[in-house]
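Q: My collaborator sent me two sequences in one message, no labels, and asked for predicted structures for both. Can we handle them in order? The first one she listed is below.
A: Yes, handling them in the order given. First sequence, followed by its structure tokens:
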Amino acid sequence: MSLWGPLKPIEAPPADAAHKLHRTLGWPHLVALGVGAIVGTGILTLIGTGAGLAGPGVILSFLIAGLVCAAAALAYAELATMIPQSGSAYTYSYVAVGETIAWIVGWSLILEYSVVCSTVAVGWSGYFTGFMDGMGWTIPKALANGPELGGVINLPAVAIIAVVAGLLLVGTRESATLNTILVALKIAALAMFVAVALPHFDAANFHPFFPNGVLPHAGPDPLHPDKLIKLGVLPAASIIFFAFYGFDAVSTAAEEAKDPGRDMTIGIVGSMAACVVIYMVIAATAIGAAPVASFAQSAEPLALILRSFGSTTAAKVFGAVAIIALPTVILAFLFGQTRIFFVMARDRLLPEGLGRVHPKSGVPVAVTIGTAIIVAAIAAFLPLAEIAALANAGTLCAFVAVCVSMVVLRKRDPGRKRVFRVPAASLVAVIGVVGCLLLFATLPVGTQVRFFVWNAIGLVVYFAYARSRSAAARP
């Protein structure tokens, strides 16, 4: 028992058959799951949003966000190989700090993963409607946008969530194999973008490099000139941050990895390292190929850049691949979300029935369907930038908890075997914690308020319902 409630053992007690996941994933599946989660809406869509806040300096925003995420990824890799349980940051906090903090982290992860799925679905909708327009089939604005963007409901976003949820219900290994194929297709499309755009590279597009400065300051919203927002490199980094995380979805699969010690390390560190390189190349190519102002507010900035210099065929191919492959991000995060719900239910902090898995597919069916309904509702009615910022708030909370948990377990249990050990762990933890707090401070005030309101509601649920039913608190 700690100051923050009971602790969870590092080695989880055996689960009964109805609450036990199947070990079917190797490290290639996990690397593909990580790359599939990381390379998605962040680079395909949010590069435009970030460029609108920072100008060409968005490249530095990518670097700052990537550094913070790299620190967190190292901490995740150590804990994922040390604690072979599903649940990601929720489980690590439960083991290291206690149940109350674990609940806050788990509640924040519910926010993160749900909103990420919704954000990516909205981003996919932008590419889908743009592609359909190019083919001569226009989807009515009322059915392709939420109310804030002048529509009624974002129907394409709802549809793609339903398709991905159906795929997950088929089985974990089957969906992971298809994910691997689609990730390879997505990387090939990004390589095509670089090959087509590089001949149009113009260094003049990088001047001025910091038109809105580095530190956050108030300025007019490009979409709503009468509304003030935070501009600068750091505010852009707090949004672009969304483009880097996804490796944490790999850690939710610890109980489904064939060899957790080896597979989790390769999956987390390998996917993060690959994506840092991909992002820096794509960002530099995009800005060099077209002035920032020309794509800053586009829902499909990379396809727009291709069309801007007459490569309509390449733009159509790119848009088609984005439509086919972008759902891998939804798949990875919807997978992660269902596993967070699953573990919290198995710990009896949520209704225990949600933790039951299908005997043949090994999938928690009730959780998968319920999660799909929630994220579809969010995607149907909210705009992309707003929900992306809210997702970042939940993720930053989780990353802080993981870095702190790594340090706590280093001090409390220094002799335990760690398949992967973070070098200079204290320094990495400081970079992760301070960087996350700094990025959180630069998020829009409305996003910060919504995050704290969400967690206030969560604490009410915890003390009124979950705490008394917790499995860890019982003999």
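Q: And the one she listed second?
A: Here it is, processed independently of the first:
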Amino acid sequence: MTDQLLALLPDYGAPLLGLITLLSCLALPVPASLFMMAAGGFAAAGDLPLGFTILAALTGAVIGDQIGYALGRSGAGWLQRIESRGGKQAMALSRATSLTRERGNIAVFLSRWLLSPLGPYVNFVAGAARLRWPTFTIASATGEIAWVTIYVGIGAGAADQFGYLWPVISDMLGLLAALTVALLLALRLRHMLQLHRKLGHKKRR
């Protein structure tokens, strides 16, 4: 399926890329990062206009984020049903909930590009938690700019090495994501320990 869609990219170009990034922001299993790198490669070869390609990818991502936020704002019960079913989606939703509650707009920004697998679920949770819409939108847009620029730029700058570089980049981003989650968990643990010490000190007094 992915190969078939990639084959359509030179013909349908930016509109197809915008649709792909939109769908990925709604938790649908489409490899948007891969498509952006491929589009960057096609742009470098002169098959696609680079500026329009970046704009289409960014527009699709921002619209997808807004739809996800709106769904979360109006469908908290739906999110609870996802959690109750268990599985990978429930795990991602649980992590996104913890991250969003503790970090708010920073969580939205990081989940656009560094923790992108959590991005759609952060959208839902941000809406359900009534995170202020201007705050969400600014964090979303700036994070999506980073995401689109990184991947389209990599594809445009390394078109000939695309097949070799993608697995390497994917592994590196996975490592960075894991390190970021570990850091956030460490900060949370530190906060809980500090709170525990304060409560213990108050009881002794």
